[in-house]
Structure formats: structure tokens, C-alpha cells
Amino acid sequence: MTTLNQTNHQSHHDRSSITMYYDDACILCSAEAYKLQSRNPGSITLIPVDEGLETLQAAGFSRSDAMTYLCIQDWYGSWHTHMDAVRLLYRTSNVKGSSLLYLPLVRQLGDFTYPFVARNRYRIPNWMTRLIYGKAVTQACENGVCKISPDKR
Fold first, then answer.
1. Mind listing the pLDDT tens digit for each residue in 31-46?
2. What is the rounded distance in angstroms from the CA atom of residue 81 to the CA atom of residue 66?
3. 126 Cβ contact list (under 8 Å, min separation 6)
4. How far apart are CA 99 and CA 60, in angstroms?
């Protein structure tokens, strides 16, 4: 899934803000969400999937899909998922080098690998999470992996 057009424009958005719906039980998802929001706080609104489920379902997303794949609504009310959502999020967060995600080869590689990574993120071991985000972020993890996968909840 890439971009879906919706007329359900959220009026609290300005022309450069996005709303990110994320799996707040996923420590990697939460850490990345807050890290990116801190880079451009006025432009990224974070909403846990379960809190925004009515909006997501009205846009055609199941809870299962929204808990697995990143969903973002832009300032026009259009929806972005998968790597399209990641690219928009990194661009909105002003991440240096985010324009590289749009290069043809990088774009294809991201589009190909994103579904696998998204579905298996709960299998990422603590040591790897700690390497990327630091020790504090893994304190919510037990037995080598963080939380439980959405299909096991």
C-alpha cells in the first residue's frame, strides 16, 4: 500500500504537519517516533494506534495492518503507509540525508525490505536495540526481545 487520498483533513494541521499512528507497545516504534518528533516537534503529532483506531478504520485500515505497518496522515488528509510513510516521516523530521531514501535503488530496496522488517521487528534482540537507541530504551524488554507481537496480543 502506498498513498491513499482521503478528504478527512484534520483541521488542527498546518501545511507542514503530519500525524503518525504507531504501535506504542513496540519499543523500537516508540523510540523512533519520539526521536523523530523531537527533531521537529511542531510538525509531527504522535497517536498510538489504539487511540486513533476509529480514524484509521474510517480510512480503511484494519487494526492488524496499522499495528504492523506505519500509517501517516499528511496535512492534506492523504494517507501514507509502508516505506512511503517512512520517507515522509524522515523528510518531515529534517533527518540529514533523508532525500537519499528517494533515490531509485534505495527506494526499491526500502520498499522490498520494509514489510519483512515491520513484521519481524519484535524478533530484534535487545543488544541490537540497545546499540541503536541506548540502554534505557530496552528496560521494557524481557528475554531478549521487546514486548509481544501484535498477532499475539
1. 888 889 989 989 999 9
2. 9
3. 138, 141, 144, 145, 146
4. 29
